[in-house]
Amino acid sequence: MKNIFVTAGAICLFGSALAADPIEGKWRTSKDDNGFSGLIHIAPCGDKLCGRLLKSFNAEGKVFASEFDGKNILTETVPKGDGEYRGRAFSPDRRKTYNSKLKLNGDKLSVSGCILVICRTGDPWTRVE
């Protein structure tokens, strides 16, 4: 009987840690104004989600060292329901941070952002893993 309580307690304790948010994982961004793209890893950071730039790709699709590698591109991201998220997104090509809106649709993630009334929308990101 004691083993049942230990097992049930372990499931309760670790079960929530195993339940990842649907946007967690690795994503390949769409190309920016310069034709560059990146590999972003979305994971929890505190009680929100962040997206860290793992690799940068030039216009030919080859990996190159970017000054932004290792930095959070997405910050303060929180779910709003129905596959929508809100947070902040940094755009390396313009060196600006936008209020972001993300929308998950299967293995595609639409990312848009606005500063005041100036908004940007690119092609959706694609899930890598």
Largest beta sheet: strand ordering: 1-2-3-5-6-7-8-10
The helix fraction, in percent, is 10-25%
- Can you count the beta strands? 10
Distance N to C terminus: 40 Å
What CATH first level would be assigned? Mainly Beta
Shape: globular
Determine the CATH topology.
Lipocalin
Structural class: mainly beta
Q: What is the alpha-carbon Rg in Å? A: 17 Å
Total DSSP helices? 1
- Number of domains in the coordinates? 1
Kindly report the average pLDDT value.
Answer: 88
Largest sheet: 8 strands, antiparallel, barrel
Beta-strand share of residues: over 45%
Low-confidence stretches: 1-17
CATH architecture: Beta Barrel
What does this structure look like?
This protein has 129 residues and is mostly beta strands. It has one domain (21-127): Lipocalin (Beta Barrel), CATH 2.40.128.520. Helix content is 13%, strand content 53%. It contains one helix and ten strands, in the order αββββββββββ. It has one helix at 2-18, and strands at residues 25-28, 37-45, 48-57, 63-64, 72-81, 84-91, 96-105, 108-115, 118-121, 125-127. Strands 1-2-3-5-6-7-8-10 form an eight-stranded antiparallel β-barrel. Strand 6 and strand 7 form a beta hairpin. The protein is globular and about 35 Å long. The termini are far apart.
In a nutshell, what does this entry contain?
The protein is mainly beta and 129 residues long.
Q: How would you describe this structure in keywords?
A:
globular, 13% helix, single chain, eight-stranded antiparallel β-barrel, Lipocalin, 129 residues, mainly beta
